């Protein structure tokens, strides 16, 4: 549509507002209550213009071809000035202290010629500084409602409201009372949107004060969402971390971890020197001494047990380039395939299941496609807490009309918005998915044309599904038959269904079967590889768990997923590396510990994984480390694992190094150093090179950029990627074989990448979980995540997130709590067949009777002494989601 603004013509999209038209024509128009991320409300009158002869607020008025727009006329300027003067007059004198370079309000005032002295309010409404990250100065609030809309329309928490009347209107938590006691999940959206400084975070001074902080664009190093962030630094410290408005996944949003949890950087407990165990104690030593000790230990291990007596656990927290270099070190310098990463504990079943079903080891589609989905099937994932930015986008999709089916034993997060909430007994997914598939088939809700042309395995599956009627499914899973039917109909009748899933599918004895039988549902509907649906997408966990595996930090796969046993893949690697690569697949993480306990593993290098806190059956893990003659640990802190190591190497964190991460939907993004690492800490990249040098080896690729380039020569899927390209384009998805063509964000439009080009339906039968409750251990413990802490908690416990959540709690249904005589806040001993943990009781209606839930963010509580060594039969991913336990009240409330 063509619009005219003060005589200048411009093109805007249909439905554009007058404000859009003014901007398109290059006009300048101040705004206050407007934020492009939010629905406009037109309340502040700062953007008054004349359109079609009438004075209107530009942000809420649709532009029209036949309505010329006037902006610059003197009377309009005066109107705008009066509107803002009125707002400002009620504010205290310090409101405009930041000067013209200050906050948004100061800039607007400057542009309208309003002097700082216009702020003459008396104030006196007070502050709320109760929350660690969000502070409120009520006197600066102009009731524009941006924070309230941010909380509703972007975050979806609905924690804020406007209270009071007229000039006294002010933002407040909807629960009344203090901010700290509200539903706020500290995403920071309200602070980012506030134009006046009424909402601020501690540490972030009024902008405009000199010196301006330096700004570094990077990718978040917590979870796999891959939020693009701007890190503001000054004097060697972080001033603030702000979401990038153009971030491909986060689009101007963030969460409590990426946005606020950076305090660990300056923790006095940060490791700043290499440590070496002498006479049982870890003592600071020089890098030379530490590395020579490691080199001697590695040589001795190889001399005594051969190269396979050495193993490394690579880090999904570290960059692609570091993971690439480590697996190259193990394969080329040591000569073993004994390298693995925490994908083993997490989404190894996704990698195996999706490869078997569709051909590639990653989600099938680009997350943006979810915006078109009309039905979301969210299975065993709690994105509201574990992937908050994705969770927020999913919720907005639902609020705008998509149907939602949640399959999770707990009523958490998005479940309260679900059309149908399926609550299977933990460990019964395969039966549930077959039950859903049974209904799709029985009711003709399948895409026969797609199944004929693009899939295989239907006859076998059809035979199997005969045994999974809704009633039989209900008997196995505990989900009412009617709910199975209702959910299948919602999914089956949707035009563009989407499957999004998490660890509730993978961390089971039959996790790979779970992934494959879940994928069946998308195949039956023709909702994958057709652009019609959003396919099948795991919410991968760590910031770079996809990348660590992509880079070949796996015992059976080389960079780019060539099998170590495949002569063609071997030949490619050997051409690039110039040395033979070991042929025999290496050990997986649990096999490494078993080999250590058996005395066969003589050196273990653990990089950025706190195996003694987060691997299952942790008493046995500690035993393995005690038996292994050399344990080296790269860490930021003296973790449970570092404590037991012989050598501890201090490393740079994600905010202190260069490289790339791959997020959950296969996008490569740049990671950039915003700070120097503390003390003598250096990057893993530098450490691996330095150790190779002490061993008289040269790994080549001296910079991270060169390492990614070399990986691209070895792995065709990454050949089109480079740091320089990512600097230019921001994010690029793999497969990306060609530097001149975009990456393939949505896969399989022509054919699947399986050997026959077809999607493979799975007819795996339901098999029961490994752990079963009995009379002695009658409850089922599910473990998972809480929003404020991250995995081992090594980082988040060293930030003010500790003020948001300070203990590991055991969630329990009120009826079970009553049976055990437990009340909220009581300490409780949880005992399994493997160990004992100590937690604090929290009764919760979100729990089903007979089940309890806890996280594992406080190693001292001992949660992973409880979990068993049972693991997915295909990939060895631990059965973290099912442990039989019983409870013992430690301090019965009757005695209080
Ligand atoms: N705040 C925070 N965010 C994180 C992390 C963190 O520690 N803290 N960790 C990151 C990592 S490494 C990962 S892998 C991701 C994990 O992200 P998620 O996969 O979302 O995490 P979990 O909470 O472990 O498990 C998800 C859900 O599975 C459900 N579940 C358990 N058993 C079953 C079952 O048998 N069937 C079904 N259908 N559901 C079941 C649980 O009730 C739980 O709600 O989060 C990442 N993000
Ligand atoms: N009971 C139970 N246990 C679980 C799970 C569960 O659901 N239930 N989930 C499992 C899953 S999915 C995962 S992924 C694992 C995660 O388990 P871990 O990987 O052990 O946990 P993190 O806390 O993410 O990170 C481990 C350590 O890495 C360090 N670190 C951070 N950045 C870097 C870096 O750049 N370099 C180095 N060298 N170190 C760094 C941190 O200080 C921290 O101590 O936990 C698993 N454990
Ligand atoms: Mo994970």
Automatic annotation (TrEMBL):
UniProt family annotation: In the C-terminal section; belongs to the prokaryotic molybdopterin-containing oxidoreductase family.
Protein name stated in the entry: Formate dehydrogenase subunit alpha
Annotated source species: Nonomuraea guangzhouensis
EC numbers: 1.17.1.9
Record GO terms (molecular function): formate dehydrogenase (NAD+) activity
Stretches assigned to the 2Fe-2S ferredoxin-type domain: 1-75
Pfam family, one: Fer2_4
Residue ranges annotated for the 4Fe-4S Mo/W bis-MGD-type domain, each copy included: 213-269
Enzyme class, broadest EC rank: oxidoreductase
PROSITE patterns: 2FE2S_FER_2 (PS51085), 4FE4S_FER_1 (PS00198), 4FE4S_FER_2 (PS51379), 4FE4S_MOW_BIS_MGD (PS51669), MOLYBDOPTERIN_PROK_1 (PS00551), MOLYBDOPTERIN_PROK_2 (PS00490)
């Amino acid at each position: 549509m063509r619009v005219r603004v003060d005589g200048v013509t411009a093109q805007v999209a249909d439905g554009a507002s007058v404000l859009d038209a003014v901007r398109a024509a290059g006009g300048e128009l101040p705004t206050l209550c407007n934020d492009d991320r939010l629905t406009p409300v037109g309340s502040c009158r700062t953007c008054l213009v004349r359109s079609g002869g009438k004075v209107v607020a530009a942000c809420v008025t649709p532009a029209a071809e036949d309505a010329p727009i006037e902006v610059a006329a003197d009377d309009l300027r005066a109107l705008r000035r009066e509107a803002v003067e009125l707002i400002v007059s009620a504010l205290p004198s310090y409101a405009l202290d930041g000067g013209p370079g200050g906050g948004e309000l100061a800039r607007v005032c400057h542009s309208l010629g309003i002097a700082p002295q216009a702020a003459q309010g008396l104030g006196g409404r007070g502050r709320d500084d109760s929350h660690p990250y969000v502070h409120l100065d009520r006197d600066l609030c102009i009731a524009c409602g941006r924070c309230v809309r941010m909380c509703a329309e972007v975050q979806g928490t609905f924690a804020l409201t406007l209270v009071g009347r007229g000039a006294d209107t002010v933002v407040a938590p909807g629960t009344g009372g203090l901010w700290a006691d509200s539903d706020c999940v500290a995403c920071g959206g309200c602070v980012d949107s506030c134009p006046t400084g009424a909402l601020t975070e501690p540490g972030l001074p009024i902008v405009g004060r000199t010196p301006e902080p330096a700004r570094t664009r990077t990718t978040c190093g917590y979870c796999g969402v891959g939020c693009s962030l701007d890190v503001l630094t000054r004097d060697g410290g972080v001033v603030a971390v702000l979401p990038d408005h153009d971030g491909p996944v986060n689009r101007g949003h963030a969460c409590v971890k990426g946005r606020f949890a950076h305090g660990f950087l300056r923790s006095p407990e940060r490791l700043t020197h290499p440590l070496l165990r002498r006479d049982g104690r870890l003592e600071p030593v020089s890098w030379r001494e530490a590395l020579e000790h490691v080199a001697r230990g590695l040589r001795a291990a190889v001399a005594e047990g051969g190269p396979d007596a050495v193993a490394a656990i690579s880090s999904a927290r570290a960059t692609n380039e570091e993971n690439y270099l480590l697996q190259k070190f193990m394969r080329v310098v040591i000569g073993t395939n004994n390298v693995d990463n925490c994908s083993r504990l997490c989404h190894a079943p996704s990698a195996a299941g999706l490869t078997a079903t569709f051909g590639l080891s990653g989600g099938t589609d680009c997350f943006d496609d979810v915006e078109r989905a009309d039905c979301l099937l969210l299975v065993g994932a709690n994105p509201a807490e574990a992937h908050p930015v994705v969770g927020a986008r999913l919720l907005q999709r639902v609020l705008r009309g998509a149907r939602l089916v949640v399959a999770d034993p707990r009523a958490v997060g998005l479940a309260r918005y679900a059309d149908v909430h399926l609550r299977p007994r933990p460990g019964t997914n395969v039966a549930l998915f077959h039950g859903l598939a049974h209904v799709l088939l029985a009711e003709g809700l399948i895409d026969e044309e797609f199944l004929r042309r693009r899939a295989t395995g239907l006859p076998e599956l059809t035979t199997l599904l005969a045994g999974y009627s809704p009633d039989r499914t209900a008997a196995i899973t505990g989900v009412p038959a009617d709910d199975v039917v209702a959910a299948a109909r919602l999914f089956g009748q949707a035009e563009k269904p989407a499957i999004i899933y998490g660890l509730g599918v993978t961390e089971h004895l039959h996790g790979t079967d779970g992934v494959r039988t879940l994928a069946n549902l998308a195949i039956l509907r023709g909702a994958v590889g057709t652009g019609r649906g959003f396919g099948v997408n795991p919410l991968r966990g760590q910031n770079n768990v996809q990348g660590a595996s992509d880079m070949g930090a796996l015992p059976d796969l080389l960079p780019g997923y060539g099998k170590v046993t495949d002569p063609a893949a071997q030949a490619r690697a050997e051409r690039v590396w110039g040395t033979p690569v070991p042929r025999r697949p290496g050990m997986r993480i649990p096999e490494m510990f078993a080999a250590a306990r058996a005395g066969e593993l003589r050196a273990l290098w653990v990089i950025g994984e706190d195996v003694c806190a987060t691997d299952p059956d942790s008493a046995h893990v500690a035993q393995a480390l005690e038996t292994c003659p050399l344990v080296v640990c790269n860490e930021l802190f003296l973790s449970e694992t570092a404590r037991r190591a012989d050598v501890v190497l201090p490393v740079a964190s994600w905010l202190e190094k260069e490289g790339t991460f791959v997020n959950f939907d296969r996008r490569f993004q740049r990671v950039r150093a915003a700070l120097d690492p503390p003390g003598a800490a250096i990057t893993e990249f530098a450490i691996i090179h330095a150790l190779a040098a002490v061993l008289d080896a040269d790994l080549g690729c001296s910079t991270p950029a060169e390492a990614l380039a070399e990986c691209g020569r070895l792995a065709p899927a990454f050949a089109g990627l480079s740091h320089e390209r990512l600097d230019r384009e921001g994010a690029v998805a793999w497969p990306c074989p060609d530097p001149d063509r975009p990456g393939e964000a949505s896969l399989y439009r022509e054919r699947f990448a399986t050997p026959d080009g077809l999607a493979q339906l799975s007819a795996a039968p339901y098999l029961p979980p490994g752990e079963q409750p009995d009379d002695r251990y009658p409850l089922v413990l599910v473990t998972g995540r809480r929003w404020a802490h991250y995995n081992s908690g090594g980082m988040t416990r060293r930030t003010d997130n500790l003020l948001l959540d300070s203990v590991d709690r055991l969630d329990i249904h009120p009826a079970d709590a009553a049976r055990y005589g437990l009340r909220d806040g009581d300490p409780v001993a949880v005992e399994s067949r493997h160990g004992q943990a100590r937690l604090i009781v929290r009764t919760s209606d979100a729990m089903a009777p007979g089940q309890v839930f806890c996280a594992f963010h406080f190693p001292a509580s001992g949660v992973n002494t409880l979990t068993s060594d049972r693991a997915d039969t295909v990939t060895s991913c631990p059965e973290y989601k099912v442990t039989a336990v019983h409870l013992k009240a430690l301090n019965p409330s009757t005695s209080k």
